[in-house]
């Protein structure tokens, strides 16, 4: 499985962006997908995740109510709709996937840069 993240860019505070994560193979091998982000000099942090079986989703407190994770099963693509962006949301965003039988995210995309200006 390969993951390809896209959709990053420069946006003003209060604006919106939608990130996409395309998978290169059948998603029946994937149990869950997620977005993480890493700001310069900081650790990689969890943002949101979605289970492919039941479409349950969960979010970090910092983005809850502003970001929405979703997936398009037919397109094998996961999305992250980011609204009301803040300067502190600026980071490289990574998509990740957890294969069946795994307890941690074992597949990672290359990252897409989001910059929010004040």
Q: What does this protein look like?
A:
This protein is mainly β. It is built from no helices and eleven strands. The strands form two sheets. Strands 2, 4, 5, 6, 9, 10 and 11 form a seven-stranded mixed sheet that branches. Strand 9 and strand 10 form a beta hairpin. The radius of gyration is 13 Å and the shape is globular. The mean pLDDT is 92.
Secondary structure blueprint with pairings:
Blueprint: E1 3-6, E2 9-12, E3 17-23, E4 30-38, E5 44-51, E6 57-59, E7 67-72, E8 77-82, E9 91-99, E10 107-108, E11 112-117
Parallel strand pairs: 2-11
Antiparallel strand pairs: 1-3, 3-8, 4-5, 4-9, 5-6, 7-8, 9-10, 9-11
List keywords for this structure.
single chain, 118 residues, mainly beta, four-stranded antiparallel beta sheet, globular
The gross shape turns out to be: globular
Distance between the termini: 37 Å
The proportion of residues forming helix, as a percent range, comes to: under 10%
- Percent strand equals over 45%
Number of strands: 11
User: Radius of gyration, Cα only, in angstroms?
Assistant: 13 Å
**Major β-sheet, in short?**
7 strands, mixed
How many separate helices? 0
Residue stretches low in confidence (pLDDT < 50, at least 5 long) are none
Explain briefly what this protein structure is.
This protein is an all-beta fold and 118 residues long. The chain has strands at 3-6, 9-12, 17-23, 30-38, 44-51, 57-59, 67-72, 77-82, 91-99, 107-108, 112-117. 0% of the residues lie in helices and 54% in strands.
């Amino acid at each position: 499985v390969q993951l390809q993240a896209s959709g990053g860019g420069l946006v003003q505070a209060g604006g919106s962006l939608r990130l996409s994560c395309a998978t290169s193979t059948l998603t029946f091998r994937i149990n869950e997908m997620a977005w993480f982000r890493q700001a310069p000099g900081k650790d990689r942090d969890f943002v949101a995740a979605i289970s492919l079986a039941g479409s349950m989703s969960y979010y970090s407190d910092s983005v809850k109510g502003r970001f929405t994770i979703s997936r398009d099963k037919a397109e094998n693509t996961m999305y992250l709709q980011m609204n009301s962006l803040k300067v502190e949301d600026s980071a490289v965003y990574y998509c990740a996937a957890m294969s069946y039988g795994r307890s941690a995210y074992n597949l990672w995309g290359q990252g897409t840069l989001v910059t929010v200006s004040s």
